Amino acid sequence: MSENFLRWKAKYDAQRERKGPFFTVSSVPIDPLYGPGNAAEIDYERDLGNPGEYPYTRGVRPNMYRGRLWTMRMFAGFATAVESNERYKYLLSQGQTGLSVAFDMPTIMGYDSDHPRAYGEVGRVGVAIDSLQDMEILFQDISLDKVSTSMTINAPASIIWSMYVVAAEKQGIPAHKLTGTIQNDILKEYIAQKSWIFPPDPSMRLITDIFGFAKENVPKWNTISISGYHIREAGATALQELAFTLADGFAYVEAGIKAGLDVDDFAPRLSFFFNSHTDFFEEIAKYRAARRIWARHMKEKYGAKKEESLLMRFHTQTAGCSLTGPQPENNIVRTAYQAMAAVLGGTQSLHTNSMDEVLALPSEKAVQIALRTQQVLAYETGVVNTIDPLAGSYFVETFTNQMEEGAEEYFRKIDELGGVLGAIQENFFQQEIADAAYRYQQEIESKDRIIVGINDFINEEKDKIDLLKIDPEVERAQVNRVKALKQSRDNIRVQTTLDDLKVAAQGSDNLIPKIMDAVRAYATEGEMIAVLKEIFGEYREQAVF
Amino acid sequence: MNKTRIRVLVGKPGLDGHDRGAKVIARMLRDAGMEVIYSGLHQTPEQIVEAAIQEDVDLIGVSVLSGAHMTIFPRIKELLKEQNAEDILLMGGGTIPEEDIVSLIEAGHAEALFTPGATSTEIVSWIKSKLESSKEDVV
């Protein structure tokens, strides 16, 4: 340590330090000061690189937001396709630049709306999609070559994506013109979000089938959004989010290679999805480290040659788990800081949560404020004027390095457990996340961590805000629609396509063309999933807490 | 006097898999000295009630973040009644609007409902106030 630093340290120690603790939202202790001594090892060319240059710590494009702003993409969907279609048209009219579809739980879990397990859940947390018919309604009067669409769907991604591609076909738009993203990330379902259907092996097959089909037919589509968001929401720290998400990413790369694909044929279409929590610098360090780790591994370990294979492009959503039920308007402020961290971290697209999402699906007013938050950030704050403005900060660079080292440590542990699938079986991720979530809760209860409106600065009076209500009639309407469809379609054709799908599932050919045939015949999602369950079986978890 | 420990089934009904709340509560109650059984995910109300009876619990706590609370709570209560197990208390938590909390409690579809931000002290003391006196009678 330099003399200069020690001189300051003596003065600092002589003064009173207020009661801490000084740690991040992930419980990482932070020093009072970072200086040249911390960042001495950094080699600009090797560790940072210019924006758009290896290892992409400073961003994936040479011009970043000076070229194009991030895509403002608000996640939306509720009730039936009719209501959601109206919401999408409203959002597009308000200056939103991409669509993001939220599905209801029965759709996510592969049940039709008329299935007994769907009872009470139709259209509640997203839109109900049972068949191609619903998908056609969802995008009525929205030309699918003019928007990019993100769809948050995982276990049944192959089916829902096929419905989208066929809905475009019906609009007269060829598949190669379509742009968008399907989440399609089953590993984080086993790890954190728990919306699985099939066991890991057939699930991974469906994913690599999508990679293969998209490469030939839908080349501009992001075939997977490898997601840390849900891992973080489940309670993980920033470092765990980073490490587990990248480990999942590498597992998909390895699966693609094992399925016989060339890494450079599918890696350019892999995209990522991160959380942005309230601890400002920790988030920024996480994003910068993520780009660098991805680029280094893709180049050095997986031998990717194309530059696009090395680029970690990612979507960000502000942290739902940071929002508070009491004093919900405060959530607007939290979301704004989180959004700024994501932008300073170089995100490609962003969803800002609405203040009321801790209580219900967002109201139109709340969504508008959340979107305006992004617009203020983009057009008023000036943070977009220069690229990666925090580079060279002693603190940010030190923290970025620390994130990378911590992630490498986790990769070693995961390898020792037999890779991601082995670690899932051992409940490694699940236990790490449960422990972190519990620790966080204890910090709040002991008041070591202050959350405004929760354990300090409490208002005695309850705040009232207007919430969106889903009419129970929605469920009946959707159930009637799918029942009517099952009566009116050509059921012989449906059966033939389902039989073909079943035979194909027993073999090893790419399943997507078979799924698309069934979709064209208006087979429902639930019918296709049922056929696949017969062959693939269902996943069961051994829960730990 | 040997006091019997309070037994709780923490359940996660419905199709939603967001289990952070359920798991934190399960651990919190265990740390507070209760015996906790966690149902695991994707349970139907029927499965939850059956497990509650089999495990002879005093209380069921369910976590609902899917907006399906207006069907799930009444259904569990109805099943408890059908099985003559009305002595088992029902509490819940999740993203439940205040209005719905009031109507569920008033209709007797749950004994207590907590929303994000509720503390363990709050939850544990509610449970103890409801169950400890009755437990002391059982020797």
From TrEMBL, chain A:
Q: Which UniProt keywords apply?
A: Isomerase
Q: Which InterPro entries match?
A: Cbl-dep_enz_cat (IPR016176), MeMalonylCoA_mutase_a/b_cat (IPR006099), MMCoA_mutase_a_cat (IPR006098)
Entries under Gene3D superfamilies matching the protein: Methylmalonyl-CoA mutase (3.20.20.240)
Query: Where on the tree of life does the source sit, at the highest rank?
Result: Bacteria
* Domain Methylmalonyl-CoA mutase alpha/beta chain catalytic span(s) in chain numbering: 24-538
Matching entries from CDD domains are given as: MM_CoA_mutase_ICM_like
Claim: Isomerase is one of the keywords in the record: yes
Q: SUPFAM superfamilies, from UniProt?
A: Cobalamin (vitamin B12)-dependent enzymes (SSF51703)
Query: Which GO molecular function annotations are given, in alphabetical order?
Result: cobalamin binding; methylmalonyl-CoA mutase activity
NCBIfam families (alphabetical): acid_CoA_mut_N (TIGR00641)
- What protein name is recorded for this chain? Methylmalonyl-CoA mutase
The record's Pfam families line, in alphabetical order, gives:
MM_CoA_mutase (PF01642)
Presence of keyword Transport: no
TrEMBL record, chain B:
- Enumerate the transmembrane spans: none
Alphabetically sorted, this entry's keywords are: Cobalamin, Cobalt, Isomerase, Metal-binding
GO MF: cobalamin binding; isomerase activity; metal ion binding
Q: Which InterPro entries match?
A: Acid_CoA_mut_C, Cobalamin-bd, Cobalamin-bd_sf
Q: Which domain of life is it from?
A: Bacteria
Annotated B12-binding domain ranges read 5-134
Cofactors, names only: adenosylcob(III)alamin
| CDD domains in the record | MM_CoA_mut_B12_BD
Name by which UniProt lists this protein:
Methylmalonyl-CoA mutase, C-terminal domain
